């Protein structure tokens, strides 16, 4: 994972609700615990992704659609929004950007 200084992380799913919203809450908690307070974490439907999105987290079944919608974003794929070690990797990436 790499990116320029990321200001917004988007959790994208089919409807923009449900498990992606819970995943967004988990990441917000991890970022706060790491002292990273300048990143906004939101959730939305894949169909609503803007082409200029910076950092997108999707379930594996939606990654290709998300890449099509936001081709220049950093994309992270998870199998389960509620339980994944990828969030720790995201936190470390965002921390490294700010070092």
UniProtKB/TrEMBL annotation:
Molecular function terms in GO for this entry? protein-N(PI)-phosphohistidine-mannitol phosphotransferase system transmembrane transporter activity; protein-phosphocysteine-sugar phosphotransferase activity
In the UniProt record, does the keyword Zinc occur?
Answer: no
User: Which Pfam families does the record cross-reference, listed alphabetically?
Assistant: PTS_IIB
Gene Ontology CC terms, in alphabetical order: plasma membrane
- Biological process GO annotation list? phosphoenolpyruvate-dependent sugar phosphotransferase system
Q: Where is the PTS EIIB type-2 domain?
A: 7-99
The keyword Transport appears for this protein: yes
UniProt keyword terms in alphabetical order: Phosphoprotein, Phosphotransferase system, Sugar transport, Transferase, Transport
The protein here is known as: Unannotated protein
What organism does the record attribute this protein to? freshwater metagenome
Q: What is the lineage of its organism?
A: unclassified sequences, metagenomes, ecological metagenomes
